[in-house]
Amino acid sequence: MNSIDRLSTLLADLYASAQKTDIANEHIKSHRLIENNNLFSTGLFICQSDRFLPYIEEVQNRLTKLSRLLSTDKTELSILLLQQIEQQIPAISTALNANITMHKAAKLSFNAFKKVKIKKAKAKQQLSNKKFAQNIMLSSNQLYQKLSEHYEFERRLMDMVAERELQRMKSSANASQKISVEVLALHQRLGRCRRAISTIERDIEQIEKTR
Predict the structure, then answer these.
(1) pLDDT at position 101, please?
(2) Which of 76, 78, 87 is nearest to 41 (CA)?
(3) Are residues 107 and 157 in the same domain?
């Protein structure tokens, strides 16, 4: 099997996988958090999309062009184009394999944002329906405000983790190692934030018992 046939076979397999993945992503609610982000850097692909198929089609067009160049003995251009294709195909394969992980991170962020909205609505409803003593009312309002701020902080940290993970997929080995350290630090901050949220929720629960 020559290089053109080998690459064509790889692209056919990737096309089928990309088509299924794009369809599946359309039905994932958390995808809306990343749907405006390009999957790859502009240095690697000309097209810009959050879907996989446009990138497959770009490589297919390049492969067709490569086939024509080989038939005209334009060796230098053929080598350059082949190198580009052999960089693009593994990048697509890696991104497809990381699709589930990427959406898990986005789902965490999506759920955190949803949780904040529910907590705010619940807090507002409770405060409108219940009449606390002046000191308890003040303390409760402050705690709910603090809880809302921490949930928002948690959501931003999750967004940052998801963003860094996307950057790491597009980065070189050296840059990827540096981003991994940043991701670890973000997770540590996220852990501290969640411990603070648990403490505030316990404080709110104690106040609720005094009503």
Answers:
(1) 74
(2) 87
(3) yes
